[in-house]
Amino acid sequence: MVETNQAVQPTVLTDNALTASAQSGTRARPQRIALVLQGGGQRGIFTAGVLDAFLTHRFDPFELYFGTSAGALNMSAYVCQQYQYGYRFITQLTTQERFFHLMKYVRRQHYMDLDWALDTALPGKETALDMEAARRHLQSRYAYACATDVDTLQPAFFSLTEDSWPDALKATCAIPLLYPHPVTIGTHRYVDGGVTAAIPVKEAFARGADIIVVVRTEPVIEQEKRDDENRRFLETLRERFEAKRPQFKLSDYLSNFESKYRLARFETFQKELSKQLGELSERYKSSREQLVNRVRDSMKEKAMQNGGRWLFGGDTIYRLQSLSGKPLNTEMLKMLTTHYQSYQSELQFLASPPARAQIVQIAPSAPLQSSALLSKPAALEADYQLGASLGNQFLREYGDSLVSLSTVDNPGFESTSLQMPHQG
User: Fold this and answer.
1) From the candidates 167, 192, 210, 383, which is the catalytic residue?
2) CA distance 216 to 211
3) Model pTM greater than 0.90?
4) I want to staple 34 with a disulfide (CB 3.0 to 4.6 A). Which of 122, 198, 209, 319 is the partner?
5) pLDDT tens across 205-251, in order?
6) Is 192 annotated as catalytic?
């Protein structure tokens, strides 16, 4: 049996909510199901494992796909239906010194060689992504890679069926500081999508998704433990109410109720942080050193632990800024602020989604062994296997129901509900 600390972690969507329609034999309408993939550099190896489990069983009930940074690369491999493409890209390319070498970056200003790595995915190369297969697969589906517009600091979503897809993949992975310049597409400049939409779940909802499956490369933030009395009260209320009205998903309401105090604290901290950063920005030109110190002090360690959401945590951003010899400028400060605010907004959406949206997350319950960069091979392999294990567990618990509910046909799906029992 899969250990508790490695379990698929549902946020709002429950087994009963998914399976009710299949068991009753009727449903009001098909559901638009979206797949949302978080980035995280080499931590994307976990996502590669999840998606390879899906590919193994031909599971693809999704009408919409969204990916940011490494999540966009894994999404591309998935819609191209290329098993272990993401695994090979991360383990064979991103681990090479040519891709990134910390000391060379420090001593010679040798940036992350994203151009070389992504060039291997272009048509005509032995290791190319099969974009023709993707276009056939996406005839009635839609896949988007997220990048950040440098000038507006707004997220932009590029369709993978358009001619600009190679540039879009490069843009979504173009980490500020590590990649030398923004990527120009049309008349706009773009950088890493993680700055503005690390987990583009809100975009999935805006485009009409009813059910959103989110693959995370970091643990889901757990709600604070409540005392035994409150917990017993909520469980008793749930059981009594659902026994009378099983069609009403009280779990949705309770999830929102239980998270309101944590969300209020997020909002308060976000407003205070924005206020402080605004004041500091006004004084930047006259006192840069004071600015850096104040920002570092105001953004406490817990708030700055980005954990791979934007490749590096805040402290590492400052270290890289120092190592690069470049001063902290207002553009980078705005990106850091925008990233933090946008990520808190995504967290709030995940914890308290609109009534129409149902969300389930696949995530490790403890930090992955791999890092954003410079991961050891054993760590990458362990995280890939963990992703594959959780992907298979997800299929056992949700696969049949999602296929039966989806707006798109998935006739090739090989059910795992009976063939793949829990491991003993």
Assistant:
1) 192
2) 16
3) no
4) 209
5) 999 999 999 999 999 864 433 334 444 544 544 454 455 445 444 44
6) yes
